């Protein structure tokens, strides 16, 4: 029997009282399972933390010293038990080290996706799809009107532009994926990265599957030589350069609002779109779908009378 309250949303994070642990807690708790290292999922200060080795590496880079005694490294595919709940971390395909969390309790399988994508990404582990009785899925782009275009076609929009390009993107995960895409499809382009991205690139080189070619940004490199540079910058830096001259501006994101007033539209997202969400649900074959991180109303309407879809219970 599916337990409606197996995982609930609290002010601290998503809580499983049957295992006595949280998932992606935002406030310090006794035991926290961390799906991936982005700031809206990973925080420090917990007495006990479970995550992949890559996630902990990115957290050390962000937070500095973390008590090693509090860390429990979860290897993809390995099983461990917390109280009476069996837990397995599975690749989510969102970024390097990102995990889905499969929880098994009294014969029922509950799958928490974290953030995930189905598109190919050479810089991280490919998603692994398993079946579950309950799918607890992000719904960032759970809208029939959202369809992410082919990534190769999008990155090729930067080809043959007679100018250097300032490319806004998120520092962790997206910047490294873009670097690899530019290296592969636009080898004539030189990638320069912002100083905040540089250490993350180094960690990706150490821990990830794909070597990357890039340099740390400096003004001289941007101004001299051929106009073949792509300068990757974080969102705040990108916004501060709204009057930048002699460059084309683009921002890599699935959000339409972030494409406005740029010279190039670049729809590259690290989340699932509507079609991929439907495909994923079909493969997981859940009896129920619980939605988090977004708006599940379109999904509820789509499956009305066929599959139970609801927001996760708030406590």
TrEMBL record:
<dbReference type="InterPro" id="IPR036866">
    <property type="entry name" value="RibonucZ/Hydroxyglut_hydro"/>
</dbReference>
<dbReference type="GO" id="GO:0004521">
    <property type="term" value="F:RNA endonuclease activity"/>
</dbReference>
<dbReference type="InterPro" id="IPR050698">
    <property type="entry name" value="MBL"/>
</dbReference>
<protein>
    <submittedName>
        <fullName>Putative mRNA 3-end processing factor</fullName>
    </submittedName>
</protein>
